[in-house]
Amino acid sequence: MPGLIFLASTPSMPHDATPQRRAVVLLSGGLDSTVTAAVAKQEGCELFLLTIAYRQRHAVEIEQAKQVAAAFGVRNHLIVDVDLRALGGSALTGALAVPKDRHEQERAQGIPVTYVPARNLIFLSLAAAHAEVVGASAIYFGANVLDYSGYPDCRPEFIRAFEQAVAVGTKSGVEGARLEVRAPLLTLSKAEIIQLGMKLQAPLRLTHSCYDPIGSVACGRCDSCVIRRQGFAQAGVEDPVAYAVR
Amino acid sequence: MPGLIFLASTPSMPHDATPQRRAVVLLSGGLDSTVTAAVAKQEGCELFLLTIAYRQRHAVEIEQAKQVAAAFGVRNHLIVDVDLRALGGSALTGALAVPKDRHEQERAQGIPVTYVPARNLIFLSLAAAHAEVVGASAIYFGANVLDYSGYPDCRPEFIRAFEQAVAVGTKSGVEGARLEVRAPLLTLSKAEIIQLGMKLQAPLRLTHSCYDPIGSVACGRCDSCVIRRQGFAQAGVEDPVAYAVR
Fold first, then answer.
1. Could you tell me which of A204, A221, A125 has the C-alpha nearest to residue A165?
2. Measured between CB atoms, which of A4, A116, A120 is closest to B86?
């Protein structure tokens, strides 16, 4: 599995500048997390990208994350292995089938089988650990309430509760450092996210969104593909990604 | 690395009994977590043991955890790989030396280098995911405030904040199921933990506590060994474990 790319001893800080705020960005290699990284960069942060290899069905996104990191010119990219497949309970890591060709009404009905139990809780916990080690004061992640209203760990209440757990449960928190969890895409539509990404020149051509790719080609039919394609259509932008089904 | 031992389809429920409360127990293979498992069993729970293989220096404890699970007669024992070594920042996973022969005053000074950033946050997050999959309503873990006052993620404030994050950030939490985090050893001294373990016939002979074992033999000099040995002495019980230094 991927090795250690993070170089703790070589922070990229120019000699004549004030220290940048350090931010850990959870980068899946998908559209939302890539635009989130672009926002963190735009907001003046020094980026520490963190990709979780959780034995997901769509592990191709890890390769995309590496390419996205390179496109941003970021050297601090850590890939951490966590075997969520062993925990089970999700179509994204287990034997359940990924639903295809669902309409908006179907997608809106409850929490989907692609929900990975406590995934964002686990990912944010790993990001908090990494933030503590590198001295970052923010975590950026691409949670979004509109397209995935069924995922409870994308809600603002959860983000605030998580910040509180970090404040009282980590060394840096107890010592008074505040770790802010930022979800800049939280209330944007997919079309708005794409437009923001275009404006910030995020490398959208390198992103991967499909839950169930055929080799490295997006299926075009899972919820994630359907939402992405509709988003590009609504944004009036051509999706640079190829699909198995047009 | 260790495989999947958990058998989701074979719950151990007698036909003539009311369903037992299911509990996920974080089992490291150490003394505290083994006594914690004994408490959960005593409190009538059906045990789902969860061991995190986090590339710790003292990986021998994972083998001990398997033996402890067998001694309890528990079939549901899941071992999950998480590469915390990649995150760095701790003597337990990295290149920092484990301190030896420290006196109580030295141990009491601040958060020790054996603190693993956000470890309990990460472990509890994985336990919450497992609890959600198997339908457990409690997580038991062996946090203790007395011997490790320097570990912020062993404090009651943290445990309550974590419960809140789970309540608002998981599918089962949002659907109204409460996941209780129980730390039955929280305010016990090591001697009291050992006495409790003896009373509950916990397999203390199989437990491993050393942070820096020589092969499979406990060093006898790290904080964990020193605290354990003092605890057995104070409890008036002979420690069944062998040490490299007596």
1. A125
2. A4
Who among A84, A117, A165 is closest to B121 (CB)?
A165
Question: Coil, helix or strand for B62?
Answer: helix
* Highest mean pLDDT out of B51-55, B115-119, B229-233, B240-244: B229-233
* Contacts with B173 from chain A: Cβ below 8 Å: 152
pLDDT tens per residue across span B161-188: 999 999 998 888 888 888 999 999 999 9
Write the residue in A120, A129, A173 that is nearest to B122 by C-beta: A129
Domain that holds residue B130: 22-235
Nearest to B68 by CA among B33, B43, B119: B33
What CATH number did the domain enclosing A137 receive?
Answer: 3.40.50.620
pLDDT digits (tens, 9 = 90+) for B104-144: 766 666 556 666 778 889 999 999 999 988 999 999 999 98
Residue A6 covered by a domain:
no
Whole-angstrom CA distances from A168 to B24, B63, B113, B127 are 23, 32, 19, 19
Beta strands in B158-209 (DSSP E): 180-182
With CA atoms as reference, the chain A residue closest to B128 would be A118
How far from the centroid of its chain's Cα atoms is residue B126's Cα? 13
How many angstroms separate the CA of residue A95 from the nearest CA in chain B? Answer: 13
Q: What is the pTM of this model?
A: 0.84
The one-letter amino acid code at B199 reads: K
Percent of chain B with pLDDT over 90: 46
Q: Position of tokens 């992640």?
A: A141
Domain count, chain B: 1
Task: DSSP for A34-77, please give it.
Answer: HHHHHHHHHTTEEEEEEEEE---TTTHHHHHHHHHHHHHT---E
Residue A11 lies in a domain: no
Residue B11 lies in a domain: no
Structural domain contains residue A141: yes
Which value does ipTM take for this structure?
Answer: 0.82
